[in-house]
């Protein structure tokens, strides 16, 4: 399935006192990557909420840290849909340093589709399924 690439620069606020990307910030970078993956396919999260009454939430994530990112690095966040279920999306995400090519971290992420009012799992809207797949 198609891949999305998001370019990010590491700012001082993204790092710990040693100038290394704080581990939780990789999750933020990946969240941005999945959001842009959806946006590139014509879906904004706020529109999905308001028009279809659905939200997407991370259900599980398996993340492996491989190499440290540092202050002022330029990163690429690769996001690829692996598969989907009726109420879930499975992504593979990798973050690399643009200049050095080091693979910083790799994750598999299961995202669940929930009813925006009840927060219970629900099927993805037909328009989303027909557009994405």
TrEMBL record:
<protein>
    <submittedName>
        <fullName>Acyl-CoA thioesterase</fullName>
    </submittedName>
</protein>
<dbReference type="Pfam" id="PF13279">
    <property type="entry name" value="4HBT_2"/>
</dbReference>
<keyword id="KW-0378">Hydrolase</keyword>
<dbReference type="InterPro" id="IPR029069">
    <property type="entry name" value="HotDog_dom_sf"/>
</dbReference>
<dbReference type="GO" id="GO:0047617">
    <property type="term" value="F:fatty acyl-CoA hydrolase activity"/>
</dbReference>
<comment type="similarity">
    <text>Belongs to the 4-hydroxybenzoyl-CoA thioesterase family.</text>
</comment>
<dbReference type="InterPro" id="IPR050563">
    <property type="entry name" value="4-hydroxybenzoyl-CoA_TE"/>
</dbReference>
<dbReference type="InterPro" id="IPR006684">
    <property type="entry name" value="YbgC/YbaW"/>
</dbReference>
<dbReference type="InterPro" id="IPR008272">
    <property type="entry name" value="HB-CoA_thioesterase_AS"/>
</dbReference>
<dbReference type="InterPro" id="IPR014166">
    <property type="entry name" value="Tol-Pal_acyl-CoA_thioesterase"/>
</dbReference>
